[in-house]
Amino acid sequence: MKYSTNFKVIMSICIFLGIGFLTGFLLLITLLNGDGEYVPFIVVSSMTVYLLIVYSVFGLFKIVKSKNGFIISVGTLWLIAGGNFAFYMYHENMDSVSAEVDLEQYEPNKDGTKVVTLEKQASLQLPKENLLRLDGATALYPLYSSFVQATYPKQEYKLYDSVIKSTKSDQAFKNLIIGNTDIIFVASLSEAQLKYAENKGVKLDMTPIGREAFVFFVHSNNSIEGLSSNQIREIYSGKITNWKEVGGQDDVIRAFQRPADSGSQTAIERFMGTQTLMEAPTQDIELGMGGVINQVAEYKNYRNALGYTFRFYSTGMVRNDNIRLFKVDGVYPDIKSNRSETYPITAEFYAITAGTTNPHAQAFINWILSEEGQELIEKTGYVPIE
Description:
Radius of gyration: 28 Å
CATH class of the largest domain: Alpha Beta
Oligomer: single chain
Low-confidence stretches: 284-295
């Protein structure tokens, strides 16, 4: 049966609307599940199906030029979709020093745990009653886990289901303020956090217990071995934007930052001094149920990237051979230069309380400052406060 041209046009429009509705539904489901990388494939698949139907309805496959045009058009669309997907996978699999570390390998009293130990029993042994609730930064969990292994009753302390947690610096601070934890172990608090505690009427007791180097790192193939403190400040204030301005290749500097109130972001803010930190690169992050948030872009180890963190986290926990730590003012950040304070950017880290009523809190902090506690700090890879 032959159909009129008008009927074919109307049928093509109906098919277009039907495929469009189905495509929209599939896109919605894909985005809700956070699988945005598949969006180009869904769109191209829908366009391919639609073109196949239209070409068949109008008999265009019988015309050689039209048939060749269809093959070229569809092939181009699929090449674009494949290239988009390849770029996405390259981006997602790019090395990241801020990648999550398996902290469960540092759980105290666990077979094969990586936490360091004392050669003899600690002089402080806490009773099972009123155990201190501890929380803190990811990079410091191996340290306070070693404190727990030395002084707490010998039992299991699951990372996500016990009195010993690691919820990262910003969340640990919030837990401290609302009274969900007794002591947190973090780097210096940000001005915003200090102001928040003041507004809440919470008095913070911050005890420095050790020192760590704040480090900058680049891709291992970057030709620059180091920069001056002032050059780094000018990069992060936006005054220097290309590696060639500091003796490197002609390539725009991707200067990544960390989320607000994280330990390393507070450190960079203090390092900048009077210079204004430029706005951080951001990325849209898809959430469940269609929500989208804009957050600080996670560090990706592009050849032109620059990032920062703390020395032990990068060298002792992540151990990424594809990044290289920078010399700052001609000094390489290692344990020796940290201890001698010849490396110019060091930061104290703290045990912080906020009016805890736990009777063991002060004794525990005093023990951390003792020879035994400071020995564990040094064995873990940090520099003791004394």
